[in-house]
Specification:
The chain has 467 residues and is mostly beta strands. The protein contains 7 helices and 32 strands. The relative contact order is 0.10. Residues 12-49 form the F-box domain.
């Protein structure tokens, strides 16, 4: 009689490394040896990191949970967020501000352990001159800042450092402790409007501040020490500021100023105090309306603009790089694609992107999806009124609208291509009291949107998914 070959544990691990999660779960039921192999942290870690590249490895390795538990919990949550059944989430109206909310951002990390201790924290700034932090799951205020001298207009959060950065209508920039709500540092610009982005590395971040008057400041974080100050444009409203995924490039522009080309700056030339001149390039396009950096590329810029020759609305994509040239370095903006935007019932007013080659446009109440070359991939008419905000991440798209609703879509892979699927609505308040939903944001376990009330105040509409 012949002998039956038995794979060693290492051999089983090698074979099982080619399996997906459902196959591993079935293999674990065969016998004790297969169960031991199929429960291996190595296999579930591989599955987790291949599906979610931003897994919080440190928390998992501390023994709070196993990689298998992490994978199964997070998959279940994604399934809940994709189907949107009423029993899968809790909706809360979070109120407390006495004015209009001008900005919202998550202070909690985008990573969760799914161990029953999850808490989403969002921060808001308002015309009532306060900064507040909220517990999304409980719908309660964590802390509120002291009353400020002017309306707060904008905010950024740095979750890994538990810091919040705000601007007010007098051009004052402040850094706050995210755990206590106490002021830490202040910098004054005397401008009525500031745009901000964070660049640099996690260990050495910088704040890039673009003023309405065309000036760009570079400040250290958290101390807000001035590193550089340059004039990007003369006497024009610099309303457009976008940062690349690798945090090495920024685009600045003035959508309301004709014949002003958008400019792209390399961050090193702004953060290096020994640099005499900023390194930048003016893009060869007409009036820039909006722009987005492709999230899966280090420096791919997608720009919505008017064609200088035809005056048609166009979308042009550039890849940015540094090019050595005669003992110096220049910026090269290589055009990747260009197309004229077709005529829709409403002019595009929001531009976002996904992956390396998908463009999303908000055109009135319609969401339009294009390829880089202009192929129409999808069109969604799920809202009854104009789209006010579009949130895009690796897994989903969420649109908010003046019709007081959110629409949730998910990315699906079909036949080696990624498509967007319309999933469900999340309803807001009553038309009797509300004007609509504005800015929307999302983490892995919740969605928040700013709801504007007819009395001029705002509240947060929060949707927490049950784990």
């Amino acid at each position: 009689m012949g002998t039956q070959a038995v794979l060693s544990l290492d051999g089983l691990l090698h074979v099982f490394s080619f399996l997906e999660a459902p196959d591993l779960l079935r293999a674990a039921q065969v016998d004790k040896v297969w169960n031991e192999a199929a429960e291996s942290a190595f296999l579930w870690r591989r599955l987790s990191l291949s599906r979610w590249t931003f897994c919080n490895v440190s928390r998992v390795s501390e023994g709070v949970q196993t990689w298998k538990q992490y994978y199964l919990h997070r998959s279940q949550l994604e399934h809940q967020m994709a189907r949107g059944r009423a029993q899968d989430f809790t909706c809360k109206a979070i109120s407390g501000h006495e004015g209009r909310i001008n900005g919202v951002a998550y202070l909690s990390a985008n990573e969760h352990t799914f161990d029953g201790q999850e808490k989403s924290v969002v921060c808001t700034v308002s015309t009532d001159c306060t900064l507040c932090a909220w517990n999304v799951q409980e719908g309660t205020e964590i802390w509120s800042s002291s009353l400020q001298p002017a309306s707060l207009m904008n905010l950024l959060t740095i979750p890994e450092h538990q810091l919040i950065i705000t601007t007010d209508e007098h051009g004052t920039i402040k850094v706050w402790d995210g755990q206590t709500g106490k002021e830490q540092f202040t910098f004054t610009t005397a401008s009525t409007w500031c745009n901000m982005v964070i660049c640099g590395t996690p260990d050495k971040p910088f704040l890039i501040v673009a003023l309405k008057e065309g000036v760009i400041f570079t400040l250290t974080i958290p101390c807000l020490t001035e590193v550089s100050r340059i004039i990007a444009f003369q006497d024009c409203n610099m309303d457009l500021l976008r940062r690349s995924p690798d945090k090495n490039w920024i685009l600045v522009g003035s959508p309301e100023t004709p014949d002003i080309s958008a400019k792209v700056f390399h961050i090193d030339s702004l953060t290096n105090s020994s640099q005499h001149k900023p390194l930048y390039i003016s893009l060869p396009i007409g009036e820039c309306q909006d722009a987005s950096w492709a999230p899966k590329e280090a420096a791919r810029l997608i720009v919505l603009h008017e064609d200088r020759r035809t005056r048609h609305l166009s979308i042009t994509t550039f890849d940015l790089s540094l090019k050595p040239c005669r003992n110096k370095v220049e910026i090269l903006a290589q055009q990747v694609a260009n197309f004229i935007v077709p005529e829709f019932s409403r002019r595009p007013h929001i531009l976002e992107s996904h992956g390396a080659d998908i463009i999303l446009l908000g055109c009135g109440s319609e969401l339009i999806i294009f390829s880089l070359t202009g192929s129409l991939l999808a069109s969604f008419q799920d809202h009854h009124q104009s789209i006010t905000s579009i949130w895009v991440d690796r897994f989903r798209v969420i649109t908010s609208s003046w019709d007081i609703s959110l629409r949730v879509y998910t990315w699906k892979r079909e036949k080696n291509t990624v498509v967007l699927k319309s999933c469900y609505h999340l309803l807001g308040g009553s038309h009797m009291w509300s004007c609509g939903l504005g800015e929307v944001a999302c983490d892995n376990i919740s969605i928040v949107a700013v709801e504007s009330k007819k009395n001029g105040k705002s509240l947060l509409r929060a949707y927490s998914f049950n784990l």
